[in-house]
Design a protein that fits this description.
Layout lengths: L1 H9 L3 H8 L5 E5 L5 H14 L7 E4 L3 H15 L1 H4 L3 E3 L1 H12 L10 E2 L2 H14 L9 H13 L4 H5 L2 H9 L5 H14 L2 E2 L1 H14 L1 H10 L2 E4 L7 H11 L5 E5 L14 H4 L1 H4 L4 E5 L7 H11 L20 E8 H19 L6 E5 L5 H10 L4 E3 L9 H14 L4 H7 L9 H14 L3 H6 L10 H23 L2 H11 L2 H7 L3 H28 L5 H10 L13 E5 L8 E6 L16 H15 L2 E15 L2 E4 L4 H4 L6 E3 L23 H4 L52 E4 L3 E9 L6 E6 L3 E6 L5 E3 L1
Bound molecules: adenosine-5'-triphosphate and magnesium ion (MG).
Adenosine-5'-triphosphate (ATP) binds next to helix 3.
Catalytic activity: Couples ATP hydrolysis with the unwinding of duplex DNA by translocating in the 3'-5' direction; ATP + H2O = ADP + phosphate + H(+)
Protein name: DNA 3'-5' helicase
Family: Belongs to the helicase family. UvrD subfamily.
Length: 781
């Protein structure tokens, strides 16, 4: 084992070895993308264990559970599986959910508390808004949840909120004076249901560690070595947990890259990196500079991009890897064409270079962009997988089954109850459920408890309805008895039949209905795996409660077994930490990336740029940047210009697959020093590249369904004899024209008007083509 360890250490460069070999004390590794931070953490953990540190005493926090699993596998390769399996490793949420289960009663929660996913939370907030008779167009449930989430992650409890006039004022200013009340109701309802939401898992952990010094001591003693990956994206709540736990032994190792901090909008706090040195004594700071992931062109281009950010730590990133191909830039007319380009490129590369589907990733700024990509991939029969959509466990039929199971474990769970009390239909109508909810709120009890005592409470229900409610209670209680004697697989199978769920789906003979039944079978397979695995591990029964906890915290990245040969589609936010041989970054357009919603301040723009840095540095060998000149957004065809981020890359690293645009160049003056919190309308008046004033579409033109600002040709950058944008010109049938790529041709016909004006042209080479005049670069000769 010692020899294997030596081998792994010797495979690291000297800079990487240093943080592995320093056994004790606080340390921070700040380094650029692909420099081996995650690898350093992995080898460091293995090395600690080989030096006799007990796996039980090590806590490693990662960005996804998938990352934790992979790390554990690597460590198991070095120290053996039996040792590695005792490591505490996972996301903040999954690790502290486990601890809260053990300690929950101190906080007044049952140990079988439910974890509400964001669907549950949003529904509950919507319900509260309805009960309070507020306008749901002003109080949008998702937004309200976002606000509450911010409060929780900043440790602002309901009490703290009502003690803080500034926060109340801010909410009142944004037309939500009753947000505090919603917050309060939401917290009470969750508590009454024995439920925690995602943010509670951190908030309650903090509460636990501050209110109960003995508990803090216990976990400080337990986690003598703490390691955190992607430290730049920890929020305040997470930061406080790490600080509290590591306070006694101070064996804390965090790794991160300030240039990859991309979750500020969710409360991540870059100061956690900057303050680290102040929080501990004798902090060792390590830097890694060599990138092992990407070819030189990609590394240099990424450096170009991030150089434009002002707020950053000084860092060097270089690579000894080969130059590799240049980054390819592609322009298309529409998003549909962009999709076809990506799909056909993947198709060709697979043919030519014998590549697998899973060596390609398509990254985008917004989820909506996946549709055009999917359409194109499907047409080419290229298998793909979208990450970050609904996780398997959030599909309706699966969530229905899970809701019954949640009730078995915690009958107070209001969201689960409301979901299935009348599904499949059993004659318990909405009015009845409303009456139950009102009564439950009144008695400060759960709905289930009200149902248990329905005989003693006068809700003006007829005896038939009462009997149905009692039947439901009896059914859930019968499941609870089974759960005490059988494993989770047996119970789930029983539940799907006994509740009538399967029969209900069978009635629906459509392909969708059949697919739903298959999904439920898949769920059963998953539970079977889980129970078998559990039995193997520690002779446990395969507890349902543990399965439900895994499920509540699963993201669909976690379901990825990795051996699927599919093209990966995901937002850039999800791609953090991952790597792929070929990466397409699509939708490289102003207002999309950088997002129109993130251009109000320099700091927002810089976060967008870091996002681009993350995207580009996922590529090992080849990166493509693609953009469309127009795309459908919000149901409208919108014209766009190439993203400034493309221009920030030095031309020597780029290869343009389509002619470089000159007419549309949009040189923003954003990076001038005047940038403060300027208002957006001013930014819109970015100057053209040189002094020539932009041409506007004349008012007499028919109004095209396009963003007019984008149509101003900036002539300053065009060659003097160069191409003219002709869509409001005097082109007539019979004109002989010259086209940049197609050469000489004759105008046969003209149609449409304004921005949609097209010319049919017969070229000497290439035949007849129809060109949209606002894009076509033509000269009349
Ligand atoms: P990110 O910032 O994107 O999270 P990172 O700094 O965590 O990146 P890793 O993912 O650990 O970087 O490493 C990037 C790639 O380089 C991985 O494929 C890793 O196996 C490889 N690598 C790291 N260090 C070395 C090394 N010393 N020799 C060879 N390959 C290495
Ligand atoms: Mg990493």
């Amino acid at each position: 084992e010692k020899n294997i360890m030596q081998k792994y250490i010797s495979q690291l460069n000297e800079a990487q070895q240093a943080p592995v070999l320093q056994k004790d004390g606080p340390m921070i590794v700040i380094a650029g993308a692909g420099s081996g931070k995650t690898r350093v953490l992995t080898v460091r953990i293995a090395n600690l264990m080989s030096q006799g540190v007990d796996a039980f005493n090590i806590l490693a926090l990662t960005f996804t559970n998938k990352a934790a699993r992979e790390m554990k596998k690597r460590i198991a390769d070095i120290v053996g599986n039996n040792e590695a399996k005792n490591l505490w490793m996972g996301t903040f949420h999954s690790v502290f959910a486990k601890i809260l289960r053990i300690e929950s009663e101190k906080l007044g929660y049952p140990s079988n508390f439910t974890i509400y996913d964001s669907q549950d939370s949003v529904r509950l907030i919507g319900q509260i808004i309805k009960e309070m008779q507020l306008d749901k167009d002003i109080y949008k449930p998702k937004q309200v949840l976002g606000r509450i989430s911010q409060y929780k992650n900043s440790l602002i409890t309901v009490k703290a909120y009502f003690n803080n006039p500034e926060l109340q004022e801010a909410d009142a200013m944004s037309k939500k004076p009753r947000l505090g009340e919603i917050y309060q109701n939401y917290v009470e309802r969750c508590f009454k249901s024995g439920a925690m939401d995602f943010d509670d898992l951190l908030l309650k952990t903090n509460e636990l560690l501050t209110r109960f010094p003995d508990v803090l001591m216990k976990y400080q003693d337990r986690f003598r070595y703490i390691l955190v990956d992607e430290y730049q994206d920890t929020n305040h709540s997470q930061y406080l947990i790490v600080r509290a736990l590591s306070d006694r032994f101070q064996n804390i190792c965090v790794v991160g890259d300030d240039a990859q901090s991309i979750y500020a909008f969710r409360g991540a706090n870059i100061n956690n990196i900057l303050n680290f040195q102040k929080d501990y004594e004798n902090v060792q700071m390590y830097r890694l500079e060599q990138n092992y992931r990407s070819s030189k062109n990609i590394v240099e281009a990424a450096n170009n991009v991030i150089d434009n950010n002002k707020t950053k730590l000084d860092k060097v990133v270089w690579t000894a890897n080969e130059d590799g191909p240049k980054i390819k830039v592609h322009r298309s007319l529409t998003d549909g064409e962009e999709g076809r380009f990506v799909a056909s490129t993947i198709f060709e590369e697979k043919m030519q270079k014998q590549m697998h589907n899973n060596e390609f990733a398509i990254l985008y700024r917004t989820n909506a962009q996946s549709r055009a990509m999917e359409d194109a991939l499907r047409k080419r029969d290229i298998p793909y997988r979208i990450y970050g959509g609904l996780s398997f466990y959030q599909r309706k039929e699966i969530k229905d089954v899970l809701s019954y199971l949640r009730l078995v474990i915690n009958p107070k769970d209001e969201e689960a109850l409301v979901r299935v009390i009348n599904y499949p239909a059993r004659g318990i109508g909405d009015t009845t459920v409303e009456k139950l909810t009102v009564a439950a709120n009144h008695y400060k009890r759960s709905i289930f408890e009200v149902m248990e005592h329905i005989d003693k409470i006068d809700l003006k229900l007829n005896s038939g309805t009462k009997a149905k409610l009692q039947d439901f209670v009896t059914m859930i209680k019968s499941f609870q008895i089974i759960n005490e004697n059988q494993d989770a697989f047996y119970l789930t199978d029983h539940v799907t039949k006994k509740t009538g769920l399967i029969q209900e789906l069978k009635k629906d003979g459509t392909p969708e209905g059949i697919a739903r039944i298959e999904n439920i079978e898949e769920l059963l397979n998953g539970i079977k795996d889980f129970t078998e695995g559990q039995k193997e591990v520690d002779g446990a029964r395969g507890a349902l409660s543990e399965f439900l906890e895994d499920v509540a915290l699963a993201t669909d990245l976690d379901n990825d077994t990795g051996d699927d040969d599919r093209v990966a589609l995901m937002t850039i936010h999800l791609a953090k930490g991952l790597e792929f041989p070929t990466v397409f970054i699509v939708g490289m357009e102003e207002d999309l990336f950088p997002s129109a919603m993130s251009m109000n301040t320099r700091s927002e723009l810089e976060e967008e740029r870091r996002l681009f840095y993350v995207a580009l540095t996922r590529a090992e060998h080849q990166a493509y940047l693609t953009y469309a000149q127009s795309r459908y957004r919000w149901g409208k065809l919108v014209d766009s210009e190439p993203s400034r981020f493309v221009e920030e890359i030095n031309d020597q690293y780029l290869e343009y697959l389509t002619p470089v645009e000159t007419n549309y160049r949009y040189k923003p003056s954003f990076d001038a020093d005047i940038f403060g919190d300027v208002d957006k309308s001013k930014l819109r008046l970015a100057k053209p590249v040189s002094g020539t004033p932009p041409k506007y579409i004349t008012d007499s033109d028919p109004k095209p369904n396009l963003n007019i600002r984008k149509l101003k040709p900036v002539s300053g950058n065009a060659p003097s004899n160069g191409n003219t944008n002709l869509f409001d010109s005097k082109l007539t049938v019979g004109n002989i024209v010259m086209h940049e790529r197609f050469g000489k041709g004759e105008v046969l016909n003209l149609e449409g008007a304004g921005a949609d004006k097209k010319a049919e042209i017969r070229f000497e080479v290439g035949g007849i083509k129809k060109l949209l005049l606002r894009f076509a670069k033509l000269d009349v000769i």
